[in-house]
Amino acid sequence: MKSKTKYIFVTGGVLSSLGKGLASASIGALLESRGLKVTIQKLDPYINVDPGTMNPFQHGEVFVTDDGTETDLDLGHYERFTNAVMSKNNNFTTGKIYESVIKKERRGDYLGATVQVIPHITDEIKASVKLLSEKADVVIVEIGGTVGDIESLPFLEAIRQFKADEDEENVLYIHLTLVPYIPASDEVKTKPTQHSVKELRSIGIQPDILICRTVKPLLKDIKSKIALFCNVRIDDVITAKDVNCIYEVPINFHSEGLDSKIFEHLNIKADKPNISVWKNVVCKLTQAEQIVKIAIVGKYITLKESYKSLNEALCHGGILNNCRVALIYIDSEELNKENCQEKFKDADAILVPGGFGTRGIEGKITAARYARENSLPYFGICLGMHIAVIEIARNKAGLIQANSEEFNPNTSDPVIYLMTEWYDAKKQKIEKRDKNSKKGGTMRLGAYPCHVKKDSLAYNAYQTQKISERHRHRFEFNNKYKEKLHNQGLIISGTSPDKHLVEIVEYIDNPWFLGCQFHPEFRSKPTKPHPLFTDFIKASHTNKKNRQ
Ligand code: GLN
């Protein structure tokens, strides 16, 4: 059945990492600024069912949605740029599509037919896109990978069919390409774009709009050459010049007329644009004079994409404090008692982010200790909270063997452990697990309610006692040590509503020392910075001023 919903398909050509995710998110932001309701979906050609088990070194951060789906990091951009709330239906991979088709085949749903890529896989892909139709006026669908890859072919074939299935004016193809600049001859080259569009047309998709990534604005003669060779109108060739701040992208797209072009193609009558909110964000993020330096102590520091949401949330934290946030990445494996003074000499605060596995743990404990003993603000997120608890247990409570069962399953003092039985407020049932449970099934994933204690750093930040935050972890605070650690200044300021699961801890002899079991970075937007990040940056700024 044809739907009234409009679909925009965003493909990418020439090479990867051109910023298709940001482009899709920015298109979403622009359409919202003109009064439309949007949602965005990512179709990923890899065979993993979801990116949950993929190494962050290779694939960047795993983004977690409210409903507990582990997704591609582009969904983080989608939520930061728009009001759309992501769910399991916003990310499909080849693995997830095949899993569903194979299940149906085993059930006998195909009534004896030979199950094939066309039509069965392509139908499944189209059905997955259509799951979002009811959710918005416009569904933007980003196809992962680069046109020309074998893996993306079924997805491209499925979106090609969309134009035949739906009313023509409801389907739009946007292709993102690269127009490289050659310094030796001082010119930009259009050939890679021509080839990429040729590839796309060979599988039956004629792009309506081209977005061209470039370091130089594209002059009229270049745009007209691209238009001629790629069979698009000159006005439909959009320059996407490199930016210093990602939130400039919607503004630049608007000044290139992208929103009006989209409306023309899709025959939409929309409100007048209001992009002042993005101008304001960019101004705040780039013009502030004060700089606050945050040391991030982690193990994935060589690939900044691994901490995508965290980096963004920290920058958002500067917005209400009128300061810019500079990040100093410190490899936890290279940090020790001897060199930490030197490594932290420029840092106004320390943050230990989430992570998995034993590598670099002792360096992170050294970092938490340094923050505590030198009254530097400390923010521990998930694993970073575990680290703070272990550090205080070892160095203040005298439990020298204190550890997490994740790092030492036989520790005599498991201050962080695998809780074998607990009430899951989301699933509303008792959950059970043990050391032999399957890795995939035993994580606490997605949004869980938390009760915040008054008179705490957490309450100061949230200004409410009832919050909900997103989780992705297996290990928990061990309540057996609550009193012992409390006597040493570690208070519990957030718990599950039944008080069983510890969600936030704070160390009282420090201006701002907080660890949380959840990932607040997944909820921060430039238009609505997360309160914990705002307060952490505020404390870091105060610390900087006090030390000057
Ligand atoms: N590895 C820890 C756990 O599984 C922390 C996870 C995280 O930081 N996201 O509990």
| Number of distinct helices | 18
Structural class: alpha/beta
Gap from first CA to last CA: 67 Å
Biggest beta sheet attributes: 9 strands, mixed
Would you identify the CATH H-level superfamily of the largest domain? P-loop containing nucleotide triphosphate hydrolases
Which whole number gives the mean pLDDT?
93
Query: If you compute it from the alpha carbons, what radius of gyration comes out, rounded to the nearest whole angstrom?
Result: 25 Å
Q: Which fold does the CATH topology of the largest domain refer to?
A: Rossmann fold
| Poorly predicted tracts of residues | none
Ligand inventory:
glutamine
Second CATH tier, the architecture of the largest domain: 3-Layer(aba) Sandwich
Biggest sheet, spatial arrangement of strands: 13-12-14-15-25-24-23-20-21
Regarding quaternary structure, what we see is: single chain
Overall helicity = 25-40%
| Percentage of residues in DSSP E strands | 15-25%
Principal-axes geometry comes out as globular
Which CATH top level class of the largest domain fits? Alpha Beta
In total, the number of domains comes to 2
